[in-house]
Amino acid sequence: APWSVLCYYAEEINLRVPLQVNTSSSSAMLSRLSLPNPMLQDVPNPPPCFYTCEFRTNKLQRFLGSDNEETFFKTTQRHQVLYEILARTPYGSVSKGQVGIDRLLSEQVFTDAYPLHEGRFKLPTPQMSPQSFSVRQILYAYWAKWSCWTRYQPLDHIREYFGEKIALYFAWLGFYTAWLVPASLVGTLIFLFGLWLMFTDVPAKEVCESGGSFVMCPTCNICSTWNYSSICLTYKAGILFDNGGTVFLSVFMSLWAITFLEYWKRTCSALSHRWNCSEFEDIEERPRPEFTAMAPMTMRNPVTGLEEPYFPENQRFNRTLSGCMVIVVMAGKIASITSSVLNLLLILMLSRVYFALAHILTRWEMHRTQNKYEDMFILKVFIFQFVNFYSSPVYIAFFKGRFVGYPGNYNTLFGVRNEDCGAGGCLIELAQELLVIMVGKQLINNIQEKLKSWWQKRRMSPRLREVKVEGGEETQRAEVSPWEADHQLLECEGLLSEYLEMVIQFGFITIFVAACPLAPLFALINNWVEIRLDAQKFVTEYRRPVVERAQDIGIWLPIMQFITHAAVLTNAFLIAFTSSFLPRLYYRYTRDRTLSGFVNFTLSRRSVFQYLGLRDENGEYRPEYFHLLAIQLSFVIIFEHVVFFIGRLIDMMVPDIPEEVEIKIKREHYMAKEALAENRVQ
C-alpha cells in the first residue's frame, strides 16, 4: 500500500489519525488512594492514546507523526485500506453483485485471503528484553498464558493487534466475569443456607420420620402405592434449591443484571471514545459492498450529506418480518417435537443448515451497513438458540405437572396420561436440567475446543521442504513462508459463537437463578477458563482476522436487556407457582409458625390414599387453594413492580456516559474544529 494509496483511502473510509496525546489511567482512583492494584500488570510498549480527527490529506501537517510515512498509519489501518480495495473492486457485472474478494472466496476462485500475523508468537531464546517483543509476543506472554488469569487483560494491545470489535468482546467478557464474583458469593451463601435447612427443616423431618403414615397414590397406571417417607433424600435435596433464600437471590440477581448492563454501557462509552469509535455507526460506517451493488436507488444521507445507495425501509421491514417468522416457525417446530437430549443433538446437527438459511434471509433483507447486517443475522440465530435451549427448562418450570388432574380423573393427551413432576417436586427437576444443560454444555464446548486445538497443533507443525545439498544425497529442511505457515492455522469464524455461548449462559444465571443458586459460580469458573482459551485461540491458533471497527457490542446489549426483563417475570412466576415458598409462608401465618403439619396440609386424600394437591375427597379445590392463588398472583405483581421500579431508579442514577468522558469528547471536538479552522485560514 503506497503512501498515496493510503492517504486516498484513509480519507475515503474516514480513518481517524492523532492530533494530540491523551493521558489517562485505568488505575487512577487506586493511585489517588495510594492503594496497590493487585490485578494490574506492567505490560511493555503500551499503545498511546490520542485525541483524533478524521484524516484529510490537505491538513496532513496538523497530525502527529505525519513526517514519518512508514509509521503514521498503523498496521491495522493499512489492513483496513487493503481490505477496502479488495472488498469493493468489481470483477464482473456489478448489477449481479460480482464485486469483492468475499464473493470470489465464496465461489472458490481463491482459496483464502487474510492478513498476516506479525511474526511468531513464541518468545525469543535466549530471553530478550520485553520491550523488544512484537505485539503478538506481548499478547502471548501477558494475556494468553494461564498464569495471567488473575491479571487485567491488556485491552489496548488487543485493540492494537486485532481491532476494536474483538477488543470490545474481550472487554465485555472480562467485565461480565468480574461482575460474576459478587453474584457467585451470594449464590454460594444461599446454597449453604439451603444445606443448613436440610438438617433443620421441620417439614423435611416430618417426611423422613413419617414411616407408613402417608400412603401415596400410584404415580402411573401400572405402578403400586408407595410411602411418602421413601423420598426423604429427594425431599431434602429439593430444599437446597427451594428455600426462602432463593427469593432474596432472585431479587438480587434481577437488580444485579440491570446494574451490570448500566455500568457496562458506561465502560463501553469510555472504551469507545478511547479507541476513537464514538461516532463510527452514525457517521463513519460505510455501506456494505454487496448493498452498494444491489441497491435499486440512491438517496442523500441526512447525516453526511453524501449521495448513497438506498433500499426502501418499508420493503426492508417486510422482508425482515418475513425472515423472522420463518425463523420462529422453524425453531418452534424443532423444540416441540423433541425431548431435551434429542433436542440438543438435533440443534447441533441442524445448526449449519439453519445458519446458512439465516445468512440467505439476512442478505435478502438488504441491510445497508455491515453492523446492521450482523445484528439481524445474530437476532435470527439467537431466536433459534433461545427457543431450543430454554424450551425444556420453561416446560419443567411452568407446565410440567400443572394439568395432571387427580386420582380417578387424570387428564390425558391422545390417550396418554399427562406428565407429572417427580416425587421431589418440579423445582429440583428444573435444577437438575439447568445443571445438565449449562454445566454440561460448557464442559463439552471447552473440551471440544481443547481437542480441536490439540489436533490443529499436530497438523500445523511447520511443514518443511526438502532441499538437496549440492554434491550429496543428504537433504536439509527449510521452514515454509509466513503466508503458508499462517494458512495452516484455523480460520477465524468471527465472534458469533463466542458471544452466543456467553449470552445463553447469562440467560441461565438470571432467568432460572431461583432454581439453581450455584449457577453464577459455575459461570464464573467457566469464564475464567474461557478467557484464556479464547486468548490462546486468537493469538496462537487462528489466522489473523481482518480488522473491524465497532462502537459497541451491537445487538447483544438489547438482547441482554430483553433477557433481564424476562428474568424478572420468570423468577416472579417461579417463586409464586413452582417454589414452595408461598405455600409455606401462607401456612406459617394461618396455621403453625413452626410449619408443624405442613406436609399433611399439602396432601389431599382419595379413599385411603393421598396425593399432592389442595383438594377435598370429591376432587374439588379447597378454599385454601383460592386463598393461595390470590397470594401468588399478588406476589407476581408486587415482585415485578418493585424490581422494575428499583431498576428504573438505577437507570436514572447511573448515566450512560461518565462525566469525564463527556468532557474528553467535547475537548476532542474542540481540537478538531480548531485544527480545521486554522487550516482554512492558512
UniProtKB/TrEMBL annotation:
It comes from Scophthalmus maximus (Turbot). Residues 158-668 form the Anoctamin transmembrane domain. The keyword Transmembrane helix applies. Keywords: Cell membrane, Glycoprotein, Membrane, Transmembrane, Transmembrane helix. It is a multi-pass membrane protein. This is Anoctamin. The gene is ano7. The chain crosses the membrane at residues 166-199, 245-264, 344-364, 376-398, 503-525, 553-577, 625-646. Residues 1-155 form the Anoctamin dimerisation domain. InterPro entries: Anoct_dimer, Anoctamin, Anoctamin_TM. GO terms for cellular component: plasma membrane. It is found in: Cell membrane; Membrane. GO terms for biological process: calcium activated phospholipid scrambling. GO terms for molecular function: chloride channel activity; protein dimerization activity. Its main location: membrane. Belongs to the anoctamin family. The keyword Glycoprotein applies.
